[in-house]
Amino acid sequence: MPDSLPPTLPVLQLRPYQERGIAAVRAEIARGVRRVLMVLPTGGGKTVVAAAIIAGAVRKQKRALFLAHRRELIDQCYGKLLASGLSREHLGTILAGDPRARPHAPVQVASVQTLVGRKHPPADLIFVDEAHHTTARTYERILESYPGAVVVGLTATPCRGDGRGLGDAFGALVQVAQFGDLAAEGFLIVPTVYSTRHPVDLSAVKSTAGDYNLADLDEALNRRELVGDIVAHWQEHAAGRTTVVFAASVAHSRAIVAQFCEAGVRAEHLDGTTDDDERAAILARLACGETTVVANFGVLTEGWDLPRCKCVVLARPTKSKGLYLQMAGRGLRPDGDTPALLLDHAGCVLAHGFPQDDQEWSLESKKKRAGAAPVKTCPSCYAALPTGTLVCPECGHVFEAPPREEIETVDGALVEVVPPSTLPVAVRRAWYEGTVATAASRGWKVGAARHRYREKFGAWPAFTDLERRYYPRPSVTS
């Protein structure tokens, strides 16, 4: 253990919810839980929390290990640990060919793929980044060699595509904050979402490991007309914005880049075979504005942070809610006053909801639930709207019949999808009046209508005059 550690270290500037998260994790450990999963939305600063806890552990002469499966995540953690006040003398990396290796340092930031084949360093505290991968055998082999260590998992999406929970790997889940909490404080941005009026026909695409078979998906999506639509809609909605595109395959990504370049837009491609130095150069060009669009397959879904990226293009559908949220979250960090755009060509928002929706996570396995898409199309102006909308906010069309479960097929256009909480007050009031009237006619208490409003719009209703109209009693607080 290095002897140059100062008695106190500079404290990272933690946000209030991060401090609450640290306290909650420590409370679980204090009551005897040895493996805790900490959940925080993409962009919420999970690595900052880990660095703060690790710095505190080092002050107590403890050793720590941070596990990650990508170089970007390792570099990100190493930088945050330096910002916490630890010196390079206290930090080492376990990553093939990395010059920062210091085998005897009390804190090791390790690549899972590298560490699994090497002698494991001592550790009292282990952090696992992107901990939804923890059930993989490589992670299990590493963690099994630390029976006495405290393990803290970090993830924005504690779910697996196959529906399995993470209860076998962790004993407690701490959900630090919801997206809405972070957006209300200015730490994340609620995006403007444009989605297709009808998803691509994927009926012939088989499933593999809980998601679409990639070979079938590539064949279904890699058509020139679809690629051309992506460029045309980007030019309409997001021209000039720093953009990341998520494609269905390497060939699909390259085809998208070719179409952007043909249109005079500076675009580059990334995939898992891209050399590390070349990948770093491509992302550096995107970060400085030399490149406008980077299309990728399977690379930038995790561990990549570029606040100036203010447009995300989803050019691949997925059955995985976790993957969808990871992709959508890449463009939701604030960068001045620039708004965020999500161009969803794959109908992901129809299947999984809005990125800013509250999520209730659990360690238990869940059965996949099928249901109607969370949006419908206005028959007058073709705006995409939440299914419960009674009056279209774009054209004023009044829905006289229950909404159809199917989305009307209209080729070649993306339309804005409006989350319920942003609908005009008049629309929310009209919806609530109908709900209150129904509750009163069936002899229910007004509380039933209030809870339905809160489930739909994320807040309690303030239309007490409507409640008094249908519940003319001295009090309607029941």
CA(first)-CA(last) distance:
62 Å
**Strand residues, percent:** 15-25%
State the shape.
globular
Name the CATH superfamily classification of the largest domain.
Answer: P-loop containing nucleotide triphosphate hydrolases
List the helices and strands and how they pair.
Layout: H1 16-30, E1 35-39, H2 46-59, E2 64-68, H3 71-83, E3 91-94, E4 107-111, H4 112-115, E5 125-128, H5 137-144, E6 150-155, E7 172-175, H6 179-184, E8 192-196, E9 207-208, E10 211-212, H7 214-221, H8 224-237, E11 243-246, H9 250-262, E12 267-271, H10 276-288, E13 293-297, E14 311-314, H11 321-328, E15 341-344, H12 348-352, E16 375-377, E17 384-386, E18 414-417, H13 425-441, H14 446-457, H15 464-470
Helix pairs in contact: 1-2, 2-3, 8-9, 13-14
